[in-house]
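Hi there,

I know you've been waiting on this one. I reran it after we fixed the sequence typo, so this is the corrected version. Both the input and the resulting structure follow.
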Amino acid sequence: MSVAESEVLIAAPPEEVWALISDLERGPEWSVVTLECRLTSDRPPGLGCTYRSVSRFAASKISTEHEIVEWVPPGGWSPGASKAQGLPSYRPANLRERELC
């Protein structure tokens, strides 16, 4: 399986970044491809919760459903595989503190 990774340096402590990205419905505020994100389970964001996102993919809009399979505040979270055919699972958050020069 191929893996693509990217890294972004943010001048904020992991706890502040976590406060934003752990509120799943705020996904469009920090993801340029996410148009909409809504919880579909009755539980708050966290392990086992489900959500639906609408994303821009090439010239299309794709609606996908996910279940959170990893939730480690303030280090990161990970959705399981998308229920949409052909789309990979991904790990959008893996926060760690780093000294800025």
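Quick highlight: Residues 14-94 form a domain with the Alpha-D-Glucose-1,6-Bisphosphate; Chain A, domain 4 fold (CATH 3.30.530.20).

Best,
R. S.
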